[in-house]
Design brief:
heterodimer; A: about 160 residues; alpha+beta; Alpha-Beta Plaits; 2 domains; about 20% strand; B: about 400 residues; Aspartate Aminotransferase, domain 1; Aspartate Aminotransferase, domain 2; 14 helices; about 40% helix
Chain lengths: ~160, ~400
Amino acid sequence: MDPLLRLLEENALATHEILAAQLDTTPAEIKKRIRQLEHDRVILAYKAIVDDERAKRTHVKAVIEVRITPEREGGFDRVASRIAQYREVSSCFLMSGGFDLLVFVEGDTLQEVAGFVSEKLSTLPGVLSTATHFNLKTYKIQGVLREAPVNEERLKVSP
Amino acid sequence: MHLPVSSLSTSVSPDFVADHVRGIPRSGIRDFFEIVQSMTGVISLGIGEPDFVTPWHIREAAIYALEHGKTGYTSNLGLMRLREEISRYVSTNYGVPYDPATEVLVTVGVSEALDLALRAVLNPGDEVLYHEPCYVSYSPSIALAHGRAMSIATRVEDEFKLRPDALRAALTPRSKVLLLNFPTNPTGAVLTAAELEEIAAICRERNLLVISDEIYSELSYGEPHVSIASLPGMRERTIFLHGFSKAFAMTGFRVGYACAPAPLIDAMMRIHQYGILCAPIVSQEAATEALRHGRASMIDMREKYRLRRNFLVNAFRKMGLACFEPRGAFYLFAGIKPTGKSSHDFAFGLLKQEQVAVVPGTAFGPSGEGYVRCSYATSLEQLQVAAERIANFIKP
């Protein structure tokens, strides 16, 4: 994998100068490469990873297992991309195993998410069944631990 | 009666302390440490251990061991399954086969392994040659084993490599051991296979035993690391020392190992069994897990060190301090001669003025004058701030 992408995945706010110093190149070259990655839609977006609890956001997140009927042409793609279009859907993946799509949904209230599932998702043509699981607590999100261990007793100088 | 501490200490005569111990200077790093430790808001590039917490699966293996009541002694040599893993690991990665039953000894870190090796082979007055700047314990450990520490200065012009002619010039009829540490703490120097072969040829010709401290060997950023033990005719005259602290971020577990022909391991084991008995079992269990499943975490950490190294080398070059690009370990040995300051004054001045801690090069031997050791085992964010402050400190 492109080492520049790996660094940006870790910290999208790293400056061109810092990235260039690590990768032994120039800031101008980094800028050019990032432009290209954005243009090619290799980089889709930059976002902050927010701890909802600390941000005091009362927010409902759910994961929904969806079984769908594949279509003669296009398989799962058409139904899946229709589902993915909804504003409430934050992520949507085609899965192996006992169901077909794993859909991550967010809403302000439980009712909003429940309404989305019962009125929109499950009534879509091609959707056979849904099973909704609500998120109760977050321990790790996108590779980041909410409570990372810190060694405060680490010596400041050691041989 | 409860005596004040001061009166207690003065009642003990210093005469009781053995001559060879009294002769050992306090670690140069120690004084500096006391000052840094008492300050707040310091960014430290003075730390000789990974900033990463031990990978979770390794910590979990230690917890699992405790949950299952693994709280007793082990064989003096160490758990057989760990020795088997070590044997496999060393054979696969360094190309040297060792019999786990008789040629591998698990120790309390490489520090203990080095101490055992020196004590096992030195007669009083035997000379141990080692390249300098070097890890702070080499000279004292040799002295404690009643040997004579014979340092060979390395130079930045030679990329801090040990030159064969310098080794030859240092040889005497009492020379018995050559102590190597590549990649080197504090310089980040490495030796290629061809360069090692030149050194090995001298060892074979002059019948030297090699003690090779390869604790940083996984953290090599260029050509793959080569162990001197893998060269022809060297296995039988090498004590290979390695451990888990650096590559697997396990400093606090205190576990390392020595591999060598059976008679040498047996001699070391005899000292170890009376002095230590065995390395802690929980650490041995964690070490077994590290060797079985730790490779991916190790490679991730190495890549992070490499990128930070690039950042720091570039930052120093921008400041006008050309420095040798370290090829291994996680230290930058930065030349500070252009500032006109001594290592000591530079380090103390930087600490006082900018609250950045670096270690004076002289802590690693007199040939470290003109340098400071900057560890990049710290986050990139900290390195950025430190680099800005150092630039601020040296600007005219």
